[in-house]
Amino acid sequence: MPVRGRLVVDVAETRDLTLPDAGRSPGELLPFGRRLRIVLVLGFLSALGPLTIDMYLPSLPAITTDLHAGAAAVQLTLTGTLVGLAVGQLLIGPLADAVGRRVPLLAGIAVHVLASVCCVFAPGLALLGTLRVVQGLGAAAAAVIAMAIVRDLFDGTAAARLFSRLMLVVGVAPILAPTIGGLVLNWASWRGVFVVLAAAGVAIMTAAAVVLPETLPRERRRNGGLRGTVRDYGSLFSDRVYVGLILVAGLAMAALIAYVSGSSFVFQDEFHLSEQQFALIFASGAIGLIGATQCNVLLLRRWSAQRILAGSLLAGLGFGLILLLTAATGLGGLFGVLVPLWLVLAMVGLVMPNAPALALSRHGEAAGTAAALLGAVQFGVGALAAPLVGVLGVGAVAMAIVVFGGMLAATAVGFLVVRPHRLPVDDTVPALAVAH
Q: For the segment 325-337, what is each residue's pLDDT rounded down to a tens digit?
């Protein structure tokens, strides 16, 4: 929680700014113009990870041809990015709690930019995959520290409102990213996508350096070292319900990543759509996902997060089974795959806010570490889905098997381990579910 009455600001002049206590969180006490600039930069930071993952999706078939590699091997470059994001969050979260926000943030984005530049010149798939891991590590800094800065500056309903806005950014970025990637392919090869990512990283790093303050005062930094970090993570792993909830979130992410990694091959190779048509199809799925996350706000006015989680898991499992059947039989052709796929994505859009909200509400005293572990599990479990789709054949059936498998496993963990119908209803959970 923020320290009332004081906000440390470490910008170019490294000055301290003391704000009078007005019964509000420090971020609300900032002048409107400066607060708006901070929120905009936080939005850019939140978009860096989705842009890194999704902008080069239309390029996957071209990379397969240009580097003379198999589809499964090329999909490992996506897995590498997700692994980097997962590991990076585990490392950067505690680091940012120990040394402050700005230095790890700027260093992480710089690593992302450097890796992007190197990707432009990568001569083979092995080096490209390694560089994608490094890109993920850099993007993890932006994801974790953006969340940490929100927690430093805002609390209560102010934090919930800001998290909701950032969720929109995270949702819109995957819609725009493949479209941008498709446009880049009109005038450049797949290497041009990494030029754009490098330029975006430089712009975001510059904006963060100029606009964002140091929001973690020295007296609030955790200095437990490696032993303290291990102790914090150990206490989280001892909570069965928390572990179950983050696994549910991770398995739902696996279903989403199966769609992300397999969709370009399914719709471009199997259904013969152009790169631009694929970008529109991908955007339609993302719109359904975003729409569900925003409908969650309305649903929480009537039902608890526990009930919404249980219902969305069961519905997602049912739609996943329909997707598998239509993909296997060819019933309905393109739309036979698209409609149940959109419905599964919508259910994932309900699982992903509520499972993390229920998990984080159990560990408010270590929210930063809990959020880092949550993000790591989401991206780590999701990373397993990308190569699995390729191993199974990269067609609609392979994608459907992994999507259905992810929802089946999430539902099993949800009802056998978490047992949402037995969890106590907490009034703070709806706000967290809106936030995430």
A: 999 998 888 888 8
Let me know: does 406 contact 254? Beta carbons within 8 Å.
Answer: yes
Delimit the domains of the chain by residue range. 1-223, 238-436
pLDDT band, very low/low/confident/very high, at 303 (cuts 50, 70, 90): confident
Q: What is the DSSP letter of 361?
A: T
Residues 6+ apart with CB under 8 A from 78: 53, 60, 132, 257, 260, 261, 386
Report the half-sphere exposure of 32 (CA within 13 A, side-chain side). Answer: 0
68 contact partners, CB below 8 Å, separation of at least 6? none
Burial of 114 (0-12, 13-18, 19+ CB in 10 A): middle
Residues 403, 262: Cα–Cα separation, whole Å: 10
pTM: 0.70
Query: Strand pairing partners for 7?
Result: 17
Domain 238-436 has CATH 3.10.490.10: no
Distance CA 205, CA 220 (A): 25
How many C-beta atoms surround the C-beta of residue 355 within 10 A? 33
* Contact assessment for residue 265 and residue 371, using Cβ atoms and an 8 Å cutoff: no
DSSP 2: P
Per residue in 232-261, pLDDT tens?
778 888 888 889 998 998 899 888 888 877
Q: Which CATH architecture has domain 1-223?
A: Up-down Bundle (1.20)
- Whether the domain at 1-223 and the domain at 238-436 fall into the same CATH topology: yes
What amino acid occupies position 348? V
**Token duo for residue 255:** 């279903």
